[in-house]
Amino acid sequence: MEKPQVVTSHLWFNYTTGFQRLGQLQPGDVILFNARVHQYRKGYFTAKQEVDYNLSHPSKVGLASGQKRPLVPEDNVALIGMIMMQNKDYYLANDRPYEPFYVSRYQDWLQKG
Asked: pLDDT (tens digit, 9 = 90+) per residue, 94-109?
């Protein structure tokens, strides 16, 4: 059997239902899932493009520890508010829009919970 090898420092995924069911993740959580490897060309069409890879269609998503985490909103507006609230410092430091509307919807969701 081959020795496991790190092939990337990070991956970006949409907050699909499988990831939402995990709840609010904590730094250091190990996530297990199956996915398809997808090849694509990155870069502008007018410039030299590089071949890169990503993972798509994640399935069988779960936490390696099996622990339960606090829920995340199913409502997309409240979910955006949660993400904004958890990353407020980043949004403000990088001139990203931090919208009170979304944050208030998340806070409303928390109160109903």
From this structure: 999 999 999 999 999 9
Q: Residue 28's CB: how many other CB atoms inside 10 A?
A: 6
Distances (CA, A) of 30 to 65, 66, 84, 102: 7, 10, 23, 28
How is residue 80 written in tokens?
Answer: 């955006």
pLDDT in tens, 50-62: 888 889 999 999 9
DSSP-derived 3-state class of residue 110: helix
User: Which string of DSSP letters, residue by residue, matches 14-69?
Assistant: ---HHHHTT-S--TT--EEEEEEEEEEEES-TTS--EEEEEEEEEEEEEETT----
CB-based burial, 76-98: b 16+ in 10 Å, e otherwise: eebbbbbbbbeeeeebeeeeeee
Question: Residue 41 carries which DSSP code?
Answer: E
For residues 9 and 48, is the Cβ–Cβ distance under 8 A?
no
Q: What are phi and psi of 71, to 5 degrees?
A: -65, 160
Find all residues with CB under 8 Å of 68, minimum gap 6, and list them: 23
